[in-house]
């Protein structure tokens, strides 16, 4: 039994290595599929973020705008991805845009609420203090509100990237490349399991690495939201430093909100089995 | 000088936040706006830096209507301390303090040097410069808030319930710090609080607001406690205003008795003979450090040649400093002393004399006249 499994795994790895890239055929092999997958997913996430930021700012600035915009984004998310890809085909053909446009729109369902919540969770006393110091509305947005929102926005980016990387696989159904092509074309059609496994493993690995990069980015961008970042300093500064009795250190609110955001229910699977909208109360 | 000329704030829903306020805040003094919630004290404060625009009347700084000035420029020239400090969580202590200098275009090096200066002024350690606000205690955060407000050396400092979110011990130390700073800086401070004790402690002048945004009384703290204008002010300042008012009278005006103070080597008989009917004798060391009380009955019971220092003395409780304390401290010392008498000491803690109940009573009656 174990020996059989071992043989099978060895066969899969062997296939993966043998087909990694094919000299003379730059468009065939595993590597081109992986780079395609990265290009499609990162482009979608990036465009999603570029759309979500101004849209979120507008929704915070003009409050009545938010409910209809959010509803629109949610409804769009309910459209099966495969249907959207086919709808795009007549206009964009087999270019990247056929996959990128729908996927970018899908990321909004997570990114938009996070941008809005991130900007809104700036504590009122902080906002008031900024006004009283003489920050105009634009400076306040750029120097106070947006930086404070970064942890929540990155939390949204993490969820959106994992979801997008997973959904790019579906794009192969309409012949748009990516690791899904290994799974669908090479695997299912030829009744051959090695490409399927290689495709799945690489997709999961890509999602995992991307998430790790985002976590790292957050640590570098927001040292102020880190609890351990302070612990080292706190120990150094301990002793008779403060004249006041030390209060219990309070975790920054942004970090809490960021964690809450990660726990949000999100559909990551491709295909048509859309989850019911039971988890949507958080968006209101 | 800040002048409110019939300044009013009426909200569209009909709520009157401030109803035609006429009031002058003197330059270089601390003026406290005090009142229950909904009395318009914070709204009035915010009219000064245009965070709230009056719907009627005007607010003038040194004779100029604030509405003639650009709001952002006006605010940069006025320090502001908010409840809970309102520090920017993503900026270090140093950069928080340097906020207004940076907005004014001072350049980073100069702004940071100024921040370091201010940290020292408000009693923060240089090692805290690179920490983030959430790594500080509430009291330290508020110190940063005060430093930030003072960074560009504004002539006016607005403080909106700045110490209400910290515990009483820290609050008292922050109040002391503010009094010390004010002695040094002489800013025009407008301080909002709902705590009458804080108002009496910090204010040179106190404006009591009543619900509906009306000014009930504007007076010195001493006058406010002595003569509340009406029932509202009287109930707001509290039932023990008579005792609290004693804080404004120095203890040095009390007459001190030295004839009931004896060295610890004095014989009991000699002490009893010179007490002339006083029921208690204070025993001190050769350096005039208080040891405790000896009762007249106790002196009569022991052999006449017993040294006072060898007797079992009643504790002297706590003392008051003759030169710096108030009548209130002297009264408190008397009430807490088993002998019912207050021990007055000099700055070095040496006994100057004892205040008898009669003398204390006379002094209390004279200030209530």
Automatic annotation (TrEMBL), chain B:
EC number: 7.6.2.9
SMART domains listed in its UniProt record: AAA
Recorded superkingdom: Bacteria
Keyword ATP-binding: yes
Keywords: ATP-binding, Nucleotide-binding, Transport
Listed name of the protein: ABC-type quaternary amine transporter
SUPFAM superfamilies in alphabetical order: CBS-domain pair (SSF54631), P-loop containing nucleoside triphosphate hydrolases (SSF52540)
All residue ranges annotated as the ABC transporter domain in the record: 2-237
Organism this protein belongs to: Nocardiopsis sinuspersici
Family named by the database record: Belongs to the ABC transporter superfamily.
Molecular function, one GO term: ATP hydrolysis activity
